Amino acid sequence: MALQLNVNGQDVQVDATPDTPLLWALRDHLGLTGTKYGCGSGLCGACTVHVNGAPSRACQLPIESLVGQSISTIESLEESHPELLDVWVEGNVPQCGYCQSGQLMSAAALLSSNAAPTDADIDTAMAGNICRCGTYVRIRAAIHEAAAQRAKEA
Amino acid sequence: MKSIANLSPLSLAPLSPDLSRRNFLGVSGVFVLGACLPACTPTRPAPPVGTLEPNLFLALEPDGTVRVTAHRSEMGQGIRTALAQIVADELDADWARVKVDQAEGDTKYGDQNTDGSRSILLNYDRLRTAGAAARLMLRQAAAQHWGVPVEEVEAKNHQVVHASTGEQLGYGDLAGLAATLPVPESAPLKADAEHRYIGHGAKHVDTADIVRGKGTFGADFTLPNMATAVVVRCPWLGGGVRRIGNQPTDEPGLIGIEVLDPSPSAGPMFTPVGGAAVIAQDTYTAMRIAGQLEIEWTESENHAFDSAVLQGELRDALGQPGTPVPNSEKGDVDAVFESAQSTLEATYETPFLAHAPMEPPVAVADVTESGCIVHGPLQDPQSARGLIAGYLGVELDTVHVTPTLLGGAFGRKSKPDFALEAVELSKRLKRPVRVQWLREDDIRHDYFHAASAQYHRAAIDDQGKPTAWLQRTAFPSITTVFAAPAVMPADWELEMGFSNLPYQVENQRMESAGIRPGVRVGWMRSVCNIFHAFSANVFADEMAAAVGRDPIEHRLSMLAEGGKLAVPGMQPPAGHELDVGRLRHVIERVRELSDWQRPRPDGVGLGFAVHHSFRSYVATVLEASMANGKPQVSNAYVVLDCGTYINPDTCTAQMEGAVVFGLSLALQSTIDMREGAVVQSNFHDYLLLRMPDAPPTTVELVPPQGRLPAGVGEPGVPPVAPALVNALFAATGERYRSLPLQT
Questions:
Q1: Which of B518, B522, B569, B647 fits as disulfide partner to B302, beta carbons 3.0 to 4.6 Å?
Q2: Rounded to 5 degrees, what angle do the CA atoms B521, B524, B530 make?
C-alpha cells in the first residue's frame, strides 16, 4: 500500500509498510540519501529533517504519521537556506561530513526561529547532534556568521 | 564528454616512443579542441589533441581539466584535498580546474593504508615530483612548438608563456603534444617560498557536495537489484548460531536468512563475526526482522569474558616485575628508591573504548562469475582487496575495491570484516548485497581500543625532578587479533609514548605485561599513545605538585636543552628522530598561547600536557573547573609542530577535533563486557561529547621551516585527557587517575 507524503514541496508516493521510519523511506524508497542513519534511536541527530519546519529525527517517525505533513530534507536547503551552505563551506566546517546534513537541518531550524542566537542558544539547539570528528566550534561560528549575514541583508 | 578518467594511467617509466597513448586516445573518442588563446600565433597549427598522463596520479585533459587520483581514503582529514594541493602546486595548475578521482585498491599505488597519520609523509615527495614532471613536459612541449629553448618558457597558473615573444598556450592545449614526450626522470621542484597551495588553505574538494547531502558515503552507494542485509551477531567472540527459534518465512520484503560461520575465538583477524544475516528488499525490513529473531548461540572460550576481571588482572600485573623493554634500563632504579628521600607512585587506568564513527560500518559487494566489486568506507582498500581475493579464492585482478567517502573511521574501517560479510552474502545470493551495521552492532562488535593500566614510581629531588623512574604498562595487545598465541605488547605499541619518554632520568626501568582479551582489540586514533601519554603526563604533573613547582617550568627542567633523543627500540628515519628542541618549543609556545601565567578565577585551573607521536609534537593546555561534580572545560589551547604541512586550516581543524575526541574519552566514554557481551549499545550509554561541552579552542601551528611532513590526524588526541586531569587538580586539588572521569 502506497502512502502519499509531501517531501521538499512535492507529493510523492511511498510503497512501504506504514510503520517504516521516514529515514528509510527517504533513503531506500525515495533515493534521498542526504539524510543519514547514525543510531536509529533519536540519539545522534544524523537523520534530522524538518516536519512542518520543526527539526525532527527521521529515524523515529513512522511514515503513516506524516501524511499531510510538510517534510523538508537536506536536499532542499540550498533553496531555503543558501547562506547557511555558504558559511559552512567558507568555514571549512565539515570533516568527514556524515553528521553534517543533520547539523545543517538543526541549524536551519534554529535560525528560522531565532535570528540572532547566542552561544547558549546554539548549544541548546544543537545538543542533539553528535559530531564524532568534533566540528562543534566551527558549527557554532558558522551559525553566528549566517545570522550576521542575514542581519546585514535584512 | 566521455570521461577518460578510467583509462589505466601509465607508470612512471618513460613513455615508449611509438606514442601508443595518443593512438589509443584517438580511437577512444576523446577529441576536444583546446581553445586558441589570443596570443597564439594564428598561422601555426594547434598542438595535437590528447591527454597528458605522465604518472599514476595526474591526468591533464585537453580541455585543461587536471584530474588528480587520490589513492588514500577520505575520512575527514582532508586528504583528497591535500594530495591534490601537492600535485597542483608543483604543476602550477589553476586550482579551480583541478578535480579529484578516487583510486581503487591496487598495489601499483604503493601503500594505501590510510592510518598511522602518514599519508602526507609517505607521498609528499612523489606527488611533488609527479606534478613537477608534468609541468616540465608542458614547458618542453611549448618550447618544441614554438621552436625556442625550454629555458625560455615558463609554466604558470595553467599557462605556458614565452616571455620575449609574449606567446602563450594553455595547459590543455599542450597536453597532447606533451604526451608525446618522454617522462623526465627528474624535474625541478619549486622552492618552499614559491608554493601557493602547499602550506596555504584550500576548501576541501568534497565539502560542496557534503553540505548539499550529495556526498557518497558507504550506504549511499547502490547497485541495481541490490539487497540489504542486517546481521545479528553472536554477543561473544567465537560463538555462532546454534539454532534460530523463529524462522520467519512469508514476511513481505524478506529475501532470506543466511547463517554466517563463527570467527576464530582467538586471532580472529578480519574474519566476520558469526551470526544470522537477514537479507531484505530494504533496510527497514531487514532491521525489523533481525530484531525479532530468537537465536541460540554456541559457546566459545570468550563467552564468560568480563572486562572488570581483565582490569583487575591488569592492576595485578603491575604489582610485579614485567618484561623489560630491551635496552631501556639505565642506572640502578632499585638502589635509588632504597636511599631516596622522597618517592611517589601512582597507578592509572583507562577502559576499553569503541571507535563509534558516525557512519556505522557498511559495504556493498557484487560477486559474479567474472569477479567481485566492493564499494564502502574502507581505510585500506588494497589490503581489503587482497583479503577478499583470498576469501573467494580468485585472482587479485578480478577484485575491485573502491573507497567511498568514510563517515568517520578513526581506525575502525581499517578492518574490513564488514566488507567480507557483504562479499560472502553476495556470493551466496548471487546478487549485489549491502551489509548495513546498526549502531548497536558497531558498539558491540568493534575492534576495541584496549583497556590499560600503568604503574609509575619515581624518586624525586627537591626540584621535583626524577632521579629514578620505574614505569610499567599492561594492556591487551593488538597483536592478539592477528595471532592466537600472542599476548605481549609489541615494540611498536610500547614505542607509542612508553619506551620513548623524552625526559632525562639517570636511573630508569620500563616493563610491560600483556593479557589476552576476550574481544577483538584494534588501533583507534593515536592508539597506545592515549593511555601512555595520559599516565606519563599526569605522573609528571604529580612530581611538580609534590614540590609545589609550576608544572611547565618543571617539565622543561626534565628535558635536555635540545638535540635528538636516543630511545630504545625506535629507529625513526633520518629527520624524524625525537627532537627535544622542537618538544621544548611547543611547550613554550602553548605557555604563551594560553597566557599560562595569568591568574584564573578561584576554582578554575590550567592543566598542561605534551606528547610526541606520529613524528609530530603537540602541547595542550586546558582551562577547567568542577561545577556540581561535573568537569567543565572553558578553553583549550593547542600548539602543533608537524613539520611541513599542506593545508593549515585542516591542521587546525584536526586539533579542534582532537580536543573533542580526547574530551569524550577523558570524560564520558567506556566500554564494559559482561559474560562475553558488550554492555553498551548506543549513544545513550556509550557517551560522546556534545556541543555544549565543546570548549573554544585556540590552535597555533609551528611554521614548517623546511622540515619533513609528519602526522596530523592522530597526535592531537594524546595530550587532551592528561591536560584535563592536571587542570582539575589545579582547580580543585583532587587528583584523578582513572578514566573516564564521569562514571
A1: B518
A2: 105
Whether residue B557 contacts residue B463, with contact meaning beta carbons closer than 8 Å, is answered with yes
d(CA A149, CA B26): 51
| CB count in 10 Å sphere of residue B245 | 8
Distance CA B204, CA B82 (A): 8
CA closest to A79 among chain B residues: B212
Dihedral pair phi/psi, residue B467, rounded to 5°:
-95, -20
> What pLDDT does B2 receive?
33
Q: Does B688 touch chain A (CB under 8 A)?
A: yes
Predicted TM-score of the model (pTM): 0.94
Give contacts of A73 with chain B, Cβ < 8 Å: 213
Axis crossing angle, helix A82-90 with helix A136-153, rounded to the nearest 10: 130
User: Can you list the residues of chain A whose pLDDT is less than 70?
Assistant: none
d(CA B400, CA B402): 7
Residues with Cβ within 8 Å of residue B130, at least 6 apart in sequence: B54, B55, B56, B57, B58, B87, B90
Contact state of A127 with B690 under an 8 Å Cβ cutoff = yes
Identify the sign of the CA torsion B569, B574, B576, B577: positive
Under a CB-based contact definition with an 8 Å cutoff, are residues B260 and B426 in contact?
Answer: no
User: Are A94 and B214 inside 8 Å of each other by CB?
Assistant: no
For the stretch B201-245, pLDDT in tens is 899 999 999 999 999 999 999 999 999 999 999 999 999 999 999
Q: In sequence order, what are the beta bridge partners of B368?
A: B371
Distance CA B627, CA A140 (A): 23
Question: From CA B663, how far away is CA B728, in angstroms rounded?
Answer: 13
H and E: helices and strands count for chain A: 6, 5
The pLDDT score that the predictor gives to residue B7 is 29
Of B168-182, B397-411, B568-582, give the lowest mean pLDDT range: B568-582
What does the block give as the cell for A101? 546534513
CB pairs under 8 A between A and B: 188
Among candidates A34, A35, A131 on the partner chain, residue whose Cβ is nearest the Cβ of B214: A34
DSSP B256: E
Higher pLDDT, B36 or B444: B444
Instruction: Tell me B414's DSSP state.
Output: G
For residues B541 and B722, the answer to whether their CB atoms sit within 8 Å is yes
**CB distance B360–A37 less than 8 Å?**
yes
Q: Is A130 on the interface with B (CB under 8 A)?
A: yes
Using the predicted structure, report yes or no on whether residue B742 has a pLDDT greater than 70: yes
CB–CB contact B213 A101 (8 Å): yes
Q: With bands split at pLDDT 50, 70 and 90, how would you rate the model's confidence at B569?
A: low
Closest-approach residue (CA) in chain B for A87: B211
Q: Does B285 touch chain A (CB under 8 A)?
A: yes
User: For residue range B244-267, what is the model confidence (pLDDT) as tens digits?
Assistant: 999 888 899 999 999 999 999 999
Sequence-distant (6+) residues with CB within 8 A of B27 are none
Contacts of B254 in chain A (CB under 8 A): none
Instruction: Tell me which H or E stretch contains B434.
Output: strand B433-436
Q: How far apart are CA A15 and CA A25, in angstroms?
A: 9
Q: Which residue of B has its CA nearest to A30?
A: B282
Rounded to an integer, what distance in angstroms lies between the CA atom of residue A57 and that of residue A51?
9
Q: Does B692 touch chain A (CB under 8 A)?
A: yes
* Full DSSP string of B590-618: HHHHTTTTSPPPTTEEEEEEEEEETTEEE
pLDDT tens digits, residue range B523-560? Answer: 999 999 999 999 999 999 999 999 999 999 999 999 99
CA within 13 Å, CB half, B132: 16
pLDDT of residue B485: 83
Helices B119-146, B171-178: crossing angle, 10 deg rounding: 90
| The three three-digit cell numbers of residue A151, written as one number | 542581519
Q: Do B219 and A29 touch (CB under 8 A)?
A: no
